[in-house]
Design goal:
It is elongated, with a radius of gyration of 39 Å. Helix 5 (120-124) links the parallel strand 4 and strand 5 (129-134). The protein has helices at residues 12-17, 26-39, 45-61, 81-99, 120-124, 143-155, 157-171, 173-182, 187-206, 209-226, 230-259, 264-296, 306-324, 339-369; strands at residues 2-8, 23-24, 69-75, 106-111, 129-134. Strands 2-3-1-4-5 form a 5-stranded mixed beta sheet, sandwiched between helices. With 374 residues, the protein is an alpha/beta fold. InterPro entries: DUF373. Keywords: Membrane, Transmembrane, Transmembrane helix. The chain crosses the membrane at residues 161-179, 185-204, 225-246, 266-284, 304-322, 342-363. Pfam families: DUF373.
Length: 374
């Protein structure tokens, strides 16, 4: 059996004529077309219904077609495309049940444009398609398809951001220039700012950084909502690093004022010697925050406590090395360490790291052999 199936996705037929759908049978479909044409002569679905009747008559009159031919009009609902597609699928099921034929049913779908054709996968899942006929006014064959395509493109958030944002920035060039002229700001500065905005946006989109930014924002929200201690300790550690950097620069300036310009290796030694304790405090703070979060999450391991001791060990070694290479004539700003003091610092740093590793390894081994009762 061949089923001629005109589709009205937004249910103009039901809303404007009050007729219940689906409409099955040639006479009923023709009457529905007349009723819709009377209610709204400009509705394109009128052409769809009349074309369905015309196609039905052609197939019936074609002597080469021996199988039975039927026609039925189905509609969706106004508004959501998902609900409309679902409604069309349900009405197609109703039509197939009403035909109650033992023959295999194949459909010829009649639509008025690309929007109605979005329901084709739903129909194809229920009945094989022999063809699709689009009926539009000849003077505007591509108008509805163009409108629907533009509507779909602009409804996509990613495409909307890619197309409309640069266009919006370009359209703001003239008003920015007018405002700049009123404020006596050079026009070249406005064009430079607009060009910089477009360039940064293009790089941002081209490199796919929006996903990284969204991911970072999501992780930050999760950290805040979970009440993790690390968010505080990281901020404190950052502040300590800034203080250490400022302290190192100030100390280097004071030493150069006392001794004159220093070679690069001496500058590095002075900077590290003055700032390393602040960096060590930052490392200990951040590592303790991480250890606290692991404990609160029941993922604590004794070996995690090695982190702050390692930080202190490294800081002692760097303090000793940098202090040994501080210029002799640094004056009252810094005192150069002796070879014995350097050896002591290296020994303390090494012993601290080794002892902490052994201590917490033993503690972890003991805990694994003697777990706490549940």
């Amino acid at each position: 059996m061949l089923l001629v199936l005109p589709v009205d996705l937004d249910d103009d037929l039901g809303r404007k004529t009050g007729r219940s759908t689906p409409v099955i049978g040639r006479d009923d479909v023709e009457a529905a077309a007349v009723a819709l044409a009377t209610a709204d002569p400009e509705d394109s679905d009128v052409n769809v219904l009349f074309q369905a009747v015309h196609t039905y008559d052609e197939l019936v009159a074609d002597e080469t077609i021996e199988e039975e031919v039927a026609v039925a009009a189905v509609t969706g609902v106004e508004g959501s495309d998902v609900q409309a597609n679902r409604a069309v699928g349900e009405e197609v099921d109703t039509v197939l049940a009403a035909l109650s034929t033992g023959e295999d049913v194949r459909a010829i779908v009649i639509t008025d444009g690309a929007q109605d054709e979005s329901v084709l996968p739903v129909i194809r899942s229920r009945v094989p398609l022999d063809g699709v006929r689009r009926v539009v006014v000849r003077q505007a064959q591509d108008l509805e398809s163009m409108y629907y395509t533009m509507k779909q493109v602009l409804s996509d958030p990613e495409t909307r951001g890619t197309v409309l944002v640069p266009l919006g920035v370009l359209l703001l060039v003239y008003p920015f220039s007018v405002v700049a002229g009123m404020l006596d700001i050079p026009g070249a500065m406005v064009l430079g700012l607009v060009s910089a905005m477009l360039g940064l946006y293009t790089l941002f989109r081209g490199l796919g950084l929006e996903r990284a930014v969204d991911s970072a924002a999501e992780r930050t929200r999760n950290v805040l909502y979970a009440g993790r201690v690390t968010i505080i300790t990281y901020v404190v550690a950052l502040a300590l690093l800034v203080v250490g950097g400022v302290q190192g620069v100030d100390t280097l300036g004071a030493v150069e004022d006392a001794t004159g310009p220093l070679p690069v290796e001496a500058q590095l030694a002075v900077f590290v010697h003055a700032a390393v304790q602040w960096a060590a405090a930052a490392g200990v703070t951040s590592s303790m925050g991480q250890v606290t979060d692991e404990y609160l999450s029941d993922r604590f391991r004794w070996r995690y406590l090695n982190a702050p001791f390692y930080v202190v060990s490294i800081a002692i070694v760097l303090y000793g090395l940098s202090g040994y290479f501080v210029p002799l004539d640094a004056g009252d700003v810094l005192t150069r360490l002796t070879l014995g003091e350097l050896a002591l610092a290296l020994t303390i740093g090494t012993l601290l790291g080794v002892l902490s590793t052994l201590t917490f390894a033993v503690a972890e081994s003991y805990t694994e052999r003697n777990p706490r009762p549940a």
